[in-house]
Specification:
Elements: E1 12-17, E2 27-32, H1 33-37, E3 41-47, H2 53-65, H3 67-72, E4 77-82, H4 86-96, E5 102-106, H5 111-116, E6 119-122, E7 128-131, E8 134-139, E9 142-148, H6 159-167
């Protein structure tokens, strides 16, 4: 399992882009984790699934609401990862009004989740293999802090907890 001090695993996530620009075409675009995190401070959080109750009602809204505070504390980007496809993540981004605040990144085949060891087996509940709920502060591609939730919990991966760690 990934831990503080480790480098993020080599993986490619996908991001749905609504507006063409900055070298990105419309639709799903690959995001190389190593390249995208190089030289940046990133507040990264992962959720079991787009449009699920806790994720939509608490997790994403907390990071959207605290965007300005994260930026003021020196965070370059906020990433939300989920084992969903880029089209679902794009629809969820529209629903949650994350544009310009939180990058909604799809880990469609759970490659990143598996490489970090932070998977959640929801087979039998109709959801298959998913990402565990967690947050991490990433500095130049390395994990600076890591907050992993217990099963069914939402206590340590919230925006306030990670923001306090950024400021520390």
């Amino acid at each position: 399992m990934i831990k503080v001090g480790d480098t993020l695993p080599a993986a490619t996530l996908m991001e749905f882009v609504e507006v063409e620009g900055n070298g990105c075409s419309l639709g799903p675009n690959p995001v190389d984790v190593a390249q995208a995190s190089a030289g940046k401070t990133i507040a990264l959080f992962a959720v079991p699934g787009a449009f699920t109750p806790t994720c939509s009602a608490k997790h994403v809204p907390g990071y959207v609401a605290k965007f300005a505070e994260f930026k003021a504390a020196g965070v370059d980007e906020i990433w939300c990862l989920s084992v969903n496809d880029a089209f679902v993540m794009g629809a969820w981004a529209r629903d949650q009004k994350t544009e310009g605040k939180v990058r909604m990144l799809a880990d469609g085949d759970a490659a990143f989740a598996q490489a970090t060891g932070l998977t959640l087996d929801l087979n039998g509940k109709g959801l298959g293999l998913r990402s565990n709920r967690y947050s991490m502060l990433v500095k130049d591609g390395k994990v600076a802090s890591l907050n992993i939730e217990g099963p069914g919990k939402f206590e340590v991966s919230d925006a306030d907890t990670l923001l306090a760690q950024v400021a520390a």
